[in-house]
Sequence to fold (345 residues):
Amino acid sequence: MNNKQMQVKYRCPSNIALVKYWGKKEGGIQLPANASISWSLSDLFAETTMIATTEVGPKLTFTFKGESKPSFEPKILVFLERISEYSEFVKTHNFIVDTVNNFPHGTGIASSAAGFGALAMCIADLEGRFENGSSEFYERASFFARLGSGSACRSVYGKPAVWGEHPEIANSSDMYAVPFEKEIHHSLSNWKDCVLIVDDGEKKVSSTQGHALLENHPYAAARFENAQKNIGKIANYLQNGDVSNFIALVESEALQLHSMMMSSIPYFTLIRPNTLAILEEIWAFREETKLPLAFTLDAGANVHLLYDKQYETEISNFIDNKLLVYCKNGLYLCSNIGGTPQKIT
Ligand code: PMV
Fold:
């Protein structure tokens, strides 16, 4: 056999869910119990270089910023193994991978969405099965990303992305995310996300463990039903520009996510006292200024501030004057919303 090497490099943004995925369906790998929708964060991304080779060697040689990172390898090996079932190319090649995030490591920001998104884009490109940039290509990349980390499948689109079957979202699927194709109202099309770093420690309960606790959760059925309804509602708000209902829904989703954690058996919390202090400040600020500022939360203590870019100065003053004291080492990271993965080389 001729030994062949192919190389590609992709940049893939992280994403933040507006309606949350929390809980899996049985019968497959990472199938969501309800549909979710996210915005992608163009300025918080991973860049991954991948070399596929038929030379004899280990299945995976992985480095993070050029340095070996054995703790990351098992997860990526599992990912490659899962994809092998669907891709002869992955089955028959070995991979040399280097990845880097543009946001500091250990900030508690989930790097898996950007990381698995970038890996999936590289594989879909190298595999060469669908034309780069076609909708089949993005679907394939999203399908692969899902097998690494569920939420990562939403990272391959610049537009808002919906993952999970939903009667009101055309072509939606549990297998991969699809772009939300409807036109977004101008009052919701130019927003930013500033992530306030409250806690940068290792999470006490991983997402995998958290999802599993939905299996015997007393409120699981009600939560999944409500999330499905919320997808229908938010789809309308995004199109008709109903900002106040958009904010109310996004905040409710964040609090429902954490309520599900607090009512799991066994229960747990990921928010910290400073998380709550920030939420109180946001509500007081909104009451006083009437500015459209929302928060959302990931599976962690950090707070995502979502706001229209036209209020950047006011929000930035608010962060500096009121919120910085609650941030670990005064750290926060801002990003524009949007931004598709890019092929770099
Ligand atoms: O993709 P996972 O398994 O890490 O799950 C992430 C779930 C949340 O970030 C809490 C919500 C979401 O939809 O992204």
